[in-house]
Fold:
Amino acid sequence: MTAITQNLPRFISDLGISIIGEKCYSSLVKNLNVGDIDCLKYSLSKGLGIGIVVGGSIMKVPQLLLILSGRSARGLSLPAYVLETLAYAITAAYSYRNDFPFSTYGENLFLTIQNTIITLLIIYFPTSSLRNAQAIGPQLAIASVTSVASAITLYILPKDILSLLQMATLPLSLSSKLPQIMQNARAQSTGQLSAFAVVSQIVGCLARLFTTATEVGDLIVTAGFALALVLNLVLGAQMWMYWGNVQKEDSGKTQIGLLSEKEKEDWASERQGRVDVVVTPKSPVPRHTASPSGRKWARKID
Structure:
C-alpha cells in the first residue's frame, strides 16, 4: 500500500501538503502511520475547518430564500442581526490580522457578508412595528454606508485595539442572540427563522471549539465560540418548542376584552361624575293607509 501512497500524482501530493503540511503528509499518507495522534488531530481539525468554511459560505442562503420567497422578515430581530454581523466581522478581522489559518475563521467572512444582506432585507421588508418609521430608501443607504465604513475601520485598526474588540465580542454575542430569543418567546413562534441556519450554527460552534483548540489556542476566540454554542442551543430549543406556530403581526389596536387592570381603573375613573343622557328614539309616524274596505271616497259635486 505504501508503494501506492508514496507515488501519488504530483497535484494530489501538493494539495495534501498544502493542507496538513509536509510532516503530517509524510507520516499519515506516505508511511500510513495511523498511530501518529498529533497528526491525526491536526488533519481532522483541518478537514473540519475546511468543511465549516464551505458550509459557512451557504449557511444563511436558506434564510435569504425564506425572506425573498415570503417577501417578509417576520420573526427576525433587526438588533440581533446587526450585533451578530458586527461580532462576525470583528472575529474575521482579528483572525486575519493575527495570521491565523483561513480554515479557522473563513466562515466568519462569508457569514458577515450574508448577514449584511439579511439585515438590509429586514429593513426593506419591515414588520408592522417598523412601517411607520422613516422612508426605506434613506435607511437602506445609511445601513449600506455604515457597513462599508465598519469594514474599512476594522481593517485599519491597530492590533491592540482589535484585541480589545475581540474581547468585546463575548458580550456582543450575548446581546446579539438575546433580542431574537426574547422575540421568539413573546411571539411563541420563530417566524421566518431558518432551522437549517440554527442547526448549522450549533454544529459549526462544536467543530470550531475543536479546531480553535487544536490549531490556534486563542482563549478569547474559544470563549466566544463556547458562548455562541450555548445561545444557539437555546434558539434550537425554541425552534423545537414553537415548531408550526404562526406569529400574528401586531396591528397596534387593543382587542376588546383584553384591557389591562390599569386601563380598566382609568376607564372607571373617567366614568365617575359623568352623566349619561339616554334619548329614547321616537317611533316613526305611521303612514295613512287605505280603509279596510278598500273603497276610495270621492267628494260629490252637485
Observations:
- Residues 159-187 form the longest helix (29 residues).
